[in-house]
Amino acid sequence: xxxxxxxxxxxxxxxxxxxxxxxxxxxxxTPSKLVLPITQHIGATARPIVEVxxxxxxxxxxxxxxxxxxxxxxxxxxxxxxxxxxxAVPHASGLxxxxxxxxxxxxxxxxxxxxxxxxxxxxxxLLLERIRLSGVTGLGGAGFxxxxxxxxxxxxxxxxxxxxxxxxxxxxTADDTVMQCFAQQxxxxxxILAHIVGAQTVLFAIEDNKPEATDxxxxxxxxxxxxxxVTFPTxxxxxxxxxxxxxxxxxxxxxxxxxxxxxxxxxxxxxxxAVRDAIIDxxxxxxxxxxxxxxxxxxxxxxxxxxxxxxxxxLAHAGFHAEQADRVLHGGPMMGFAVTDLAMPVVxxxxxxxxxxxxxxxxxQAQQPCIRCGMCAEACPASLLPQQLYWYARAKDxxxxxxxxxxxxxECGACAYVCPSHIPLVQxxxxxxxxxxxxxxxxxxxxxxxxxxxARQTRLEQEAAAREAKLCxxxxxxxxxxxxxxxxxxxxxxxxDFEQVLxxxxxxxxxxxxxxxxxPLVAGITDFLEAKGHAVFGPSTIASQLEGSKQFAKDxxxxxxxxxxxxxxxxxxYYAEALAYVDAHNQYPxxxxxxxxxxxxxxxIPENREELLAGLEELRTGSLQx
Length: 626
Fold this sequence. Notes:
By secondary structure, the protein is of the alpha/beta class. The strands form 7 sheets. It has a 6-stranded mixed sheet, sandwiched between helices. The protein has a 4-stranded antiparallel sheet with strand order 2-8-7-4, with no helix packed on it. Strands 11-10-9-12 form a 4-stranded parallel sheet, sandwiched between helices.
């Protein structure tokens, strides 16, 4: 690469990086307990899969990812789960999160790790799943799940992988130390990253204030033909990925876009190592290098620390003098935030714990009115108008905030650093961004609600139309009577003349025939019309016998154990037998039924023997069915 380009704005605050002795890694002492938040990443919260009292080993998954934009959490060492509850966690807004507390047993036992022997022969899907299940997130500060970032499928694809070793924030030297001490692992991880995304070029970007790291990376990257180590002048905030892309490639990520839109992917050196460990060694992300610095410490430096280590214990290992410290910051002096409880744990994005003295970083001065000097606009690396955004944020004018691209602000703090009125501009921007995000979520909820309402209205209208479509245009009634005339068209048809009925159906293009009278049903009109391919609502000939033949119905019920009154069937010369059957039971009233259709007149209910004799005579002569 022959040319380096400049970015708009930027500042040169005191670096003070030498305080933490970059290039030397100190192993932090093993804490008595670990506190592991289940949300150490951007995206969906992980779900605990252990319970209080469970014994765990180092590297064991203790919370599983929920959904694609999520990563699991693993135990850094062996011990017993002693609590699963809400605790204070490092966050600019002072939030709490569900945390899994592990009391360590001091044995530091781990599960058996198994890496991928030939990762070049594996599919992209398998490698991404390995990275995801290892809990790898961006370790440069954002905490975005690495597997999701690598899986970003843009039209242009990824042609350039940038390993961002800029580390422009004052005090912080974690990346500098990682590059000096683990350069070979960074290159190995970068090669895996390039393989996954299909990048043809790998750029190791380092500011010119890190000569030892530059030398180490050049030596390690010499064998990787696609790689180049690029240095450029130190200026804050050159480490912002959009700013870094402009410095190296002289192109700007569009407003609202991401580097992948330009075919570029940025990753942190420690993230590259985490990817390498996940693929080659099969080790999940459980430790990281963290800068512990500030003049209130006896032994500042870069420590390899277990995730979940309480910040207070980490500071104690560095010789912390609380009486000298004005405050403790998570991160650097420009983009960090105050730690309100030293029991908060080190998490995946903890690149620095800063404990300055009061003289080292004085408390913020009282805010004064804006004098409209424009220095903030000159310093802004995103070419925004901080002064205008400040007014709109105070006025809660979300429309103007969006129009002036507030969401492109990287919250670097350069504007607040140069402000002569000491206005905490970034605090206003963070609050306004939160309001914009919440408004966007509310708009999504509103749109979803409206969509559900409109979908329901459409469904109801469709159902009504379908019901309307099912209604017949004309109802024919055969033979009908004066009462049915109001419901349809009476037709003089003989229901027992099946051919006549069939001809009428064809002439009128009738879609459904409903048969009510018993005689045509018993005679078999349903079977006849169905055989001709016509839709009929009515029982078949056999089913009609339940109504057409009382003997069939009684025998059917008895055969199928359907409760029915005791009965006996008589035919032919039955008079004496029937009389003897009733006399034998001597229970009145009794029911006399003539088999077959009788138009509702085929039933007698004698109350005594005289009425029984008269009824049997009617059945014998056939006068009952006349």
